[in-house]
## 1
Amino acid sequence: MSPFIQSAPKAVYIHIPFCTNKCHYCDFNSYVLKGQPVADYLDALEREMALTVAAVPPGRIETVFVGGGTPTVLLPDQMERFLTMVARHFPLDDPNLEFTMEANPGTTDEDKLAVMKAGGVNRISFGVQSFDNGLLHKIGRIHNTDDVYRSLENARKLGFDNLSIDLMFGLPGQTTEHMRQSLDAALKLELRHYSLYSLKVEENTLFHTLYQKGQLPLPSEEEEVEMFLMIRERLQQAGYEQYEISNFAKPGYESRHNTTYWRNESYYGLGAGAHGYVSRQRHVNVKGIADYIAAAQGGLPIMEKETVSEAEAMEDFMMVGLRLLRGVRRDDFARQFGGAAWMKYSARS
Ligand SMILES: C[S@@+](CC[C@H](N)C(=O)[O-])C[C@H]1O[C@@H](n2cnc3c(N)ncnc32)[C@H](O)[C@@H]1O
Ligand code: SF4
């Protein structure tokens, strides 16, 4: 067997598990902010950062992604503290560093954006979901389209030019025409990047309960396909390449952080419920806030950890790589598994 090579991660994912409210479709590891021990959570996160880099010192960090939850529910002083500790524990001196933060429209005033900018964030991904106020309300979002326009305008004013938005399709009561209107509004903003997700009805969500009772009027599969084809055509006409199933970008503005996952490369994963892939081991952190804080007192707050065999890693490499338009590359494969591995793998498969 050839050596299975995994160098020190160049990517860092950090999870902020708080949201102003819980959207009707969402099963992400996120909790309603009110009454949560945010300062204790940040303390625990800092301990996890210190223990993580002590265990496996980072190479040059190329991407940081702060996701959620809603990272931008942190108040400006909490945000400043958070970003200072990221920079204290991880080397962020790469001039091409991509530092993304997820944000909800309406949670980014100018003060907070200024702190984010000063703390090194240079890419923001806004969860817009739709430009239809009625639909936004129906899916449990607390923002409206005015919040979207104001948030993007503020971000641009503060000098953020690498902006992305998430939109959802296949929503209850949504038609292809509704989706076309949302997409047209989105394209008028001329952003660098768009993510388009088809609604997945996840267990333990309000939508799942409604679905089981037959009270969720979802578009048919044919309508959903029609929406997707329309989305792809319109984005391509506007000069965006579909570089991954759900992701479209102007050339050079593909999410480098998410591409790390699709190339099956290693990454640190920190925060409650975060996943990481470091030194051939995949881990999932403790999910609940209080449990995470308690676990971080005594060491790394890991819930599950497994060593990935070379054969499994090769399968993973193929599976996630095929999400990318560029597909899987021999040279990437060789970098991870050694020079002769491709021949051996193709002979086996
Ligand atoms: C962690 S959230 C983004 C940040 C922020 N919390 C927000 O919602 O605006 C990531 C994205 O996943 C998508 N998403 C979440 N739940 C989904 C579901 N059940 N089906 C499809 N897409 C979903 C949404 O587009 C959402 O913006
Ligand atoms: S979709 Fe985003 S804002 Fe809504 S609950 Fe999930 S993580 Fe929070």
Note: The chain is about 40% helix and 20% strand.
## 2
Amino acid sequence: MRIFLTGASGYIGSAILGAFARAGHHVTGLVRNSEKADQVASHGGVPLIGDLRDPSSYRQAAEGHDAFIHAGFDGSRVVETDRSAIETLIAAARVGDPGRPRVVIYTSGVWILGHTRQPAAEDAPLDPAAISAYRPGHEQIVLAAAGEGLRTAVVRPGIVYGGSRGIVGDIFRDAVNGLVHIIGTGENRWPTVYDRDVADLYVRLALHADASGVFHATDESDERVNDIVEAIVAHAPNTPDVRRVPLEEARAKHGPYALALVLDQVVRSPRARALGWAPTLRSIAGNAARLFEEWRAKAV
Ligand SMILES: NC(=O)c1ccc[n+]([C@@H]2O[C@H](COP(=O)([O-])OP(=O)(O)OC[C@H]3O[C@@H](n4cnc5c(N)ncnc54)[C@H](OP(=O)(O)O)[C@@H]3O)[C@@H](O)[C@H]2O)c1
């Protein structure tokens, strides 16, 4: 299968690239510069240098692939680059023989659900955190594009762990540096997922001819932030301090991101499990020693 992947150098994107490459598929990975191009090549992908801010830099090159995966994220122009990437990938997917099956997979996230008082499956009502306010509209563009040989899917990963990056990678780094911050009480639960497991779901979605619609990707561990941090701190070389930052203070510093981190969420992934997807890791706290080793091996 030929895959066109945005965000190929990113946290989730590089895991997706690795999963497809290991399974023997051709992956064209969009990157911004030659350094990232080398990184993609070393992970078994074929880099294409371009920019999400300039769809003409990758639109034509995307045509002719079988799967189009958006895992790019431009933090300074999120809404416009996300929307134009979706529209560009859908347009590229529609080019060519309509009899050839194609799939567009969009990376959304669980923050679209807001607090989940009850365990939330893919059909749960949306109550997006402010930082995810644009997501429902973008998910709808992707889902509505299905038809005439084009299949579409939306993945909502939990907070990703594994390796050295992301929100959990930052906790490992802070633990090594001696001070970990928890926003709010830390009694809230984070839906989480191991990076290799979420990447495996993208492979399943690309290969499974009937898979379409929304898919949660969570390990269903329902761990509280306090428990995650406590386990990581216990494995740090020198016991770090843990500081609880009142939400208002964190909000003044981090804006809507702080509000997302205090969401209390219990998120289930029945549609992914129905595809045979089963997370290989089901806890951060219970795997803290192993995850610390992974973090050390990859941290620069
Ligand atoms: N990480 C999580 O825990 C998590 C959980 C749920 C959902 N998500 C969602 O998953 C998506 C990917 O997240 P992530 O954590 O993998 O983010 P990330 O590590 O920041 O990766 C973002 C990727 O997009 C690329 N990019 C940024 N601006 C670009 C531009 N203008 N042109 C081309 N490429 C550009 C980056 O390239 P460079 O390498 O050059 O910067 C990088 O490859 C986001 O939509 C995010 O909200 C993430």
Note: The mean pLDDT is 97.
